[in-house]
User: Fold these one by one.
Assistant:
Number 1:
Amino acid sequence: MDALIHKSQDFVFHQEVPPNGGPPLNRLISEFVTPEPDFFLRTHGDIPELDCTTYRLTVAGLVGKPYRFSLKELRQQFPVQEMPATLQCAGNRRCSASAIKPVPNEVHWGNDAISNAVWTGCSLAKVLTFVGFPGHAKHVEFIGTDLCQKEGTETRFGGSIPLARALLGDVLLAWGMNGQPLTREHGAPLRVIVPGYIGARSVKWLQEINLLLTPSRNLFHAHAYRLFAPSVSSSSADWEHGLELGELSVNSCICAIEEVSNGLSVRGYATAGGNRHVVRVDVGYGEPLKWIEGSFQDPAEAGVWRRWQAHTPKLLVGELICVRAWDSAANTQPEDPESVWNFKGYMNNAWHRVRFGMPWENVKLAKPEIEYYL
Amino acid sequence: MDALIHKSQDFVFHQEVPPNGGPPLNRLISEFVTPEPDFFLRTHGDIPELDCTTYRLTVAGLVGKPYRFSLKELRQQFPVQEMPATLQCAGNRRCSASAIKPVPNEVHWGNDAISNAVWTGCSLAKVLTFVGFPGHAKHVEFIGTDLCQKEGTETRFGGSIPLARALLGDVLLAWGMNGQPLTREHGAPLRVIVPGYIGARSVKWLQEINLLLTPSRNLFHAHAYRLFAPSVSSSSADWEHGLELGELSVNSCICAIEEVSNGLSVRGYATAGGNRHVVRVDVGYGEPLKWIEGSFQDPAEAGVWRRWQAHTPKLLVGELICVRAWDSAANTQPEDPESVWNFKGYMNNAWHRVRFGMPWENVKLAKPEIEYYL
C-alpha cells in the first residue's frame, strides 16, 4: 500500500494495488459531507505526485491555439465556486451483481463507492468560454496524469462529457475539498467534478482538456464504462454498441439498522443522476413486503445525495428489509439485480435488500463482516 | 361527441365528454410521425373555438409590464422553429395500473395516450428573453382558454415548468402540427410543446404565460399530476408532498405482434424523459423469460419516441412476451405494476407484458378487443 495514503483506520480496501476502497457503511452516512479520511478512493493506476507550482493544465483540441494555465492563473482569472457534489462510481453496489453471476477483473465494491464533499474550484464553462470554441465542438475530454494498465497497454485515465453538459456552469475544475487543498489521492492539484455523472468522468490529476467532435477514444471511455445487456459477455461485446455511461440512474442503499425502543431505525443514502433529485424513498419490510415512506435528513438537490431514515416495527432475525428511491423524473429502481446484471457489473440499482441481523442477502462478500447488522 | 372533432373512424374514445382517446395500437406505431387523425386526444373541459385574427397571448407575472402578442406578431418577430416531439400523457398505461387496484375518476387510458408529431412555432426562450424577466423568476406558468370542472369549481387548465427548462430553447409556442395549421382539438391557435415532459405541461389554447416565483397554483398543477406512494389515497393525500410530475420516466410498450415464417415479429414504442433518449429495448419471452435485444426503427433523440422491433421464436398461445426500455442515464423500468401503483394511476412504467394470442395480462379493459392479438 502506498504509504502516502491517509485513510481512516477501518477504511475497507477492496483492492490494494492500485488502492480502491471505502469506509464502513454506518460511518459513510454519519455526516452529510464525508470527511476526507472516509471519502471512498477509486484509482486505476499509479497515484501521481505533482508539484503545484510547476503544474500546467492544457486546453486543446478544437480550440485552435492550445492554452496552458497554471493553478495560480485558474484561481485568479476565474471566479471561485464552492459547491457540494456526491461522487459515485459506476461500480457501486457491484457486490450484489457479482453474487448473481461473477464479474471478474473488476473491483469488488460493496455499497461504499460513494461519498459527498464540498468542492472548491472554478467553472469549466467559464474556462471554455474564455478560450473559445467552434460551433462544431460537441464533447469535452479530460485526460489525467495517472498511468494505468489497460488491455495490455499503458494509458492515461480519461473520458469525456457532452459540451452542452460542460457549459451548464456546475462542472468544476476543483483544487479544494471540504475547505482544504485537494489531497494527492483525490486528484491534487486539480480534478474535474461532474455532478450527477458516474465518478469516472470526474477525472483526477487533470492534465489536458480537449474539445472534440466525438466522444473520447480514451480506453477508459471507449472500452469501459459502457452498459450491455445481461446476455452480452466480455468476448461478445461490441463496444461501439454499449450504452456510453454518463448520468447516474436512481439508486439507494441501507447503511445502518439499529434497534430502538419500539422497533428498528433504518438509515441509508439515496441518489439521482443528471439534473434530477431524489424525491422519495420507500422502505419495505417483512414478507409480503409492507412499505413505509422514509424521511430525509438532507435537502433535495441535483447531484447531491439525500440521507434518509425510516422506522419499522420490531422484526425477527432474518426478516427482509429493502429500499428503493424515486427521482424527480418519476424513475424508480428495478426490483431484481438479475434483470440489470451486466458483465462489467455497472449501475446495479436494484432494490437494496438485507435480512435483519444477517449479512446482505445474496451477497458473497470476501469480507462479509463489514456488512453484518446487529 | 363534439361534431367538430375529426378523428379516424376506428379511433378509440375512452371517454366522450370531454373527449379523450387514442388510435388502435398497431396503427399508432405504423409511422414515425403520427398523422393528425390518429394523434391521441386529451381534453379536460370544453374545446375552445378561437379566432386566429383576434387571438392574443398575454405574457405577464414577474415581467413587469404585461405584453400582448397577436399570432402574426409571434410569427414575424421570432424565428420559426420546426421539430419532432412526442407527447405522452402521465396517465398513459393506466389500464395496467387500474387492473391491480381501481383508479376511479380518471380516464381509463390504454397504452395509447402517446403520439409523435412535427411541431412548428417559435421558441418560448426567445419570447421570454424578448420580454425580459427578473433574476428571481423561477417558474413559467401556462394557462389555457379551456374551462374545466375541477373540485367543484370551474377553472382554466394550466400548469408550470421551471424557468431553466423553458430557457433551453426547445420549448415551442406552436401554431403548426405536421406541416398544417394546428387543429382546434389540438390547441389552435397556439399551444405549448415541452419535449420530455408529461403532456399536461404542453398546455393547449394558450391564453397566458406568467413568470412566477413558485410553481403554478392552478388546480391542474397543484392538485393533480402529482405522484404518491402506493399507500396514499385520495383522502389521505397531502398535495404539497406529492412528487410534482415534470420529466417523464423511461417507458415502453408492445403494440403489435405478427406471425412470421419462423416466429413472431414484435413491435412497439419506447420513450425517455427530460434530455434523455432511449438506448436499448429488451424483449423477453417464455417462462422463465429469455431476453433478446430489440432493434430501433427511429434515431435516438431526446423528447422523441423510438419505435422498435424484435424477432422471437414461435410461441404457444398464452406464452408471455414483455418489454422494458433503458434510457441514456441507465434508468430502466420497474418489473411489477403493483410496486408503482398510485391512486391517480400516473406514470405506470412497469414492464409491459402480454400473453401471445390473448388480451393483455391482468388488464380488465372496457373494450378488450382493441388490445387482442392474432
Note: Residues 334 and 350 of chain B are 5 Å apart (CA to CA).
Number 2:
Amino acid sequence: MFRLISREGKARLGEYTTPHGTIETPVFMNVGTQAAIKGGLSATDLKTIGCQIELSNTYHLHLRPTDTLVKRMGGLHRFMGWDGPILTDSGGFQIFSLASLRRIREEGVYFSSHIDGRKLFMGPEESMRIQANLGSDVAMAFDECVGIPAERAYVQESSERTIRWLARCKEALEKYNAEEDAVNPGQVLWGINQGAVFHDIRVENMKRIAELDLAGYAIGGLAVGETHQEMYDTIEVVEEHMPADRPRYLMGVGTPGNIIESVARGVDFFDCVMPARNGRHGHLYTKNGIINIKNEKYAEDALPIDPECGCPVCRKYTRAYLRHLFKAEEALALRFAVTHNLFFYNSLMAEIRASLRDGSFEQFRGRYSKTLDQRI
Amino acid sequence: MFRLISREGKARLGEYTTPHGTIETPVFMNVGTQAAIKGGLSATDLKTIGCQIELSNTYHLHLRPTDTLVKRMGGLHRFMGWDGPILTDSGGFQIFSLASLRRIREEGVYFSSHIDGRKLFMGPEESMRIQANLGSDVAMAFDECVGIPAERAYVQESSERTIRWLARCKEALEKYNAEEDAVNPGQVLWGINQGAVFHDIRVENMKRIAELDLAGYAIGGLAVGETHQEMYDTIEVVEEHMPADRPRYLMGVGTPGNIIESVARGVDFFDCVMPARNGRHGHLYTKNGIINIKNEKYAEDALPIDPECGCPVCRKYTRAYLRHLFKAEEALALRFAVTHNLFFYNSLMAEIRASLRDGSFEQFRGRYSKTLDQRI
C-alpha cells in the first residue's frame, strides 16, 4: 500500500494507496472531527483547498450521531459527502482528554460521556467495531495516550497494555472486515507507538508492534507537554525501528516548523487542529510568518492575506475586508480564515514534496523551518 | 432603467438596468447587512445560488468599517467582491429599530450608536453622503419608519417631514454624483412611501413623492406590526398611484406567500432577513412547506432537504447529515441552511417570472401562495 519513491537524508517522498484513492506523502490530514470541518467548510471545499485525506473522530461520532447510524447511512464517506481517503483515530485520545470518571482496566476503559455524563465502555474491540461501522480507510489502534510528564513505572505498564490491546485490535478488525455487510472491507489498521519521553520504552514498544506487520505506524503521545527538542529526539530514536516500507504518522503535530523538522526525521503523515483553531482567532499563515488579521494596521490593506498564496480567499479578497469580517463578527470571517490556513498547510506539504522530488528539501528546510512559525 | 415586459392582472414581469447589470423582476434581494451574508456565504456563493442583487446596510457600514474606509477601498462592490447590482437602505430603519436616545428634528435624527453609545447625527444629506461613499447602484431615501399601531396625527407629521427629507435626498445625491471622485456616478435614488395603515395619508404621500420623478419607489413601514390583510390592503391602495414605468419595492417582506401575494398586487422588488434567520434556526423551505431539520424524524433520512431543489446542498447532502450538523453545532449547518433557503427564495422568484412569461402566474399563485408558508 505504501511506496517509497525517494529519500533526501531521512526525509521520504512516497505514495500511499487506500480504497478511496492514492495519497502523495508527506501529507497533512485535514481534521473534520464530527464529520465536518470547523469554520463551515464542506467536503467540496476540501477538494478546492487541496486536501488529500480527511481525519474524523471515533469518540465524537460514536456519541453523535452514533456510528451505527453512520453505517446505516452508507458509511462516513457517503454520510459527509467526501469520496477521498479517510483516517479515523481510535477514540483513545479523546477518552483521556475529554471524558470524565475514567477507569482503565485490562479489558478497556470505563468513562462518562462529555456530552451527557452517560456511562460508557470502550476497549480495542469496541473501537474497531466503531471504526468498521464508520468505514474509514485507515483505522487507528486503541491506545492509552499518557500525558507528559509521567512516571516511568506507569508508562512501562501502560505501554505493555497498549501492545496487548493492539493485538486484540488486529484480530477484531480482521473479523469485522470479513463480515458480509462490512462498509469498507479494505480498511486497514495502523499501530501507535507510545512510551512518553522514555527512549528505551519507546524503542521496545516500537520493536514489538512492528512484529505485528501492520499497514502503518504512528508515533502517539507527543505534543502533549514535552519540549520541541524532546519531541524531535523521541522521533529520531523511534524512527530507526519503524519499518521503512510502511507509512509513519506523527499524531497531532503541529506548527509548519514542526512538520518540516519531522519530515526531515522521516515522518510521512501529520494532523493538527492548529491551522483551523488559529484561523478562527484571526491568526493567519503567510510565507513570512503568522499575521493577526484583527490588527489595526490591516484596516485599509488592499493586499490579500498572503500575496504568494493561491487560495480562493487570497485570489479575491483583501486583508481589509477580512479584518472587517472579524471585527463585525461575521461567520464568513471564520470560513475564510480556516480556508486560507488549511490551504496554506496543504500547499506547504506540496512544496515539501516538490523539494524532495528535485533534491532541494534541505534548502527548503533551511529557508522556512524557523520563519513560518514566527508571529509578525 | 425599468422596462415593463408584460403583465398578468396587476403582476408585472420586467427588467431593471443598473451600472452593474440588468435584473429580471420580480426579484428577491439577498441581504448582506454588514457587507457579508449571514451563515458564512461569500460573494461567490451569491452567484451560485442565483442572487441578482445584493442589499447592504448604510447604518451598519457607516459605524463599521465606516463608509469613508469603504470608499478608500474602491467602494462596496470591490470591498466585498460582488460585481452585481447593490441596493443600500438609508439607515433610517436601523436608527429607529437599533439605536437609542433618538431625537428627531427637522434637520435629521440625533442618536447613539448601538455598538459603543457614541453620539451620532444622520439626516438626508448624511445618508446620501454615506450611500455615495459606498457606491451602491440604488440609494434609498432617508425616511422615518413609524411603528404600527401609531397615532394618526404623528403619522401625518412624520409623512410630511419624510417628503421634505426626500427632496433634500434628491438634491444631495445629484451633487454627490457630479463629484469628480464619485464611486458610482450612475447611482440612483428611490423614494419611500410611508403613512402606516392610514390609506389617505399613504395615497397623499405617494402622489407627492411621485412628482419628484425618481428612478424607483418603495413601500416602507409595513411588516412592522400590522396584519397580513392590512399590509395587502395598503399595497393595493398605494399601488394605484405608483408610476407604472418605475420599479416598486416592498421593504422587508416577507414569507413566500407574502411575496406571491404582493407580486399579484404589482410589486417588483423584495428583501427580507427571514430566509437566512429561519435557516440558522433549522427551519428550511420546501415546495411542500417549512420543515424543522432538527426534528428526530430526519435522523436517518437519506433524502435531500427538498427533493425538487437544485441547490448545492440538496444536490449532494442528506437531511440526516444536515440534522447531525445542527445537533453537533457545526458552523457548516448554518451555511448549508442559509444556502438552501436563499436558493429557494431566488428560485421562487425565477418560477414566478417564468409563470408570468407564459401567463400561468395565477395558477402558480393558487397552488403555492398558502402552502409554502405552512410548517409541516
Note: The CA atoms of residues 292 and 335 of chain A lie 16 Å apart.
